[in-house]
Amino acid sequence: MSKKTLIISSAVAAVFAAAGVVWFFIIKKR
User: Fold this and answer.
1) How far is CA 1 from CA 6, 19, 26, in A?
2) What is the distance between the alpha carbons of residues 3 and 9, in angstroms, rounded to a whole number?
3) Taking the CA of residue 7 as centre, how many other CA atoms within 13 Å lie in the half-sphere pointing to its CB?
4) What is the DSSP string of 1-30?
5) Which tens digits make up the pLDDT trace of 14-24?
6) In whole angstroms, what is the distance from residue 9 CA to residue 15 CA?
7) Inter-CA distances, 18 with 3, 9, 25, 30, Å
8) Cα angle vertex 19, ends 24, 26, to 5°?
9) How confident is the model at residue 25 (pLDDT cuts 50, 70, 90)?
């Protein structure tokens, strides 16, 4: 696994984590 792939995969994981947290808060507010 190259360094570039690792950076991209961690960035994607961070985006998914952020989206999950935002989605969770939206569901909880209702």
Assistant:
1) 7, 26, 36
2) 10
3) 3
4) --HHHHHHHHHHHHHHHHHHHHHHHHHHH-
5) 999 999 999 99
6) 10
7) 22, 14, 11, 19
8) 30
9) very high
Q: Which two tokens stand for residue 10?
A: 């961690």
One-letter amino acid of 14: A
Q: Kindly report the pTM of this predicted structure.
A: 0.61
Q: Which two tokens stand for residue 8?
A: 């991209």
- Residue bearing tokens 């984590």: 17
Handedness of CA 19, 22, 28, 29 (dihedral sign): negative
Note the residue count of the chain. 30
d(CA 11, CA 28): 26
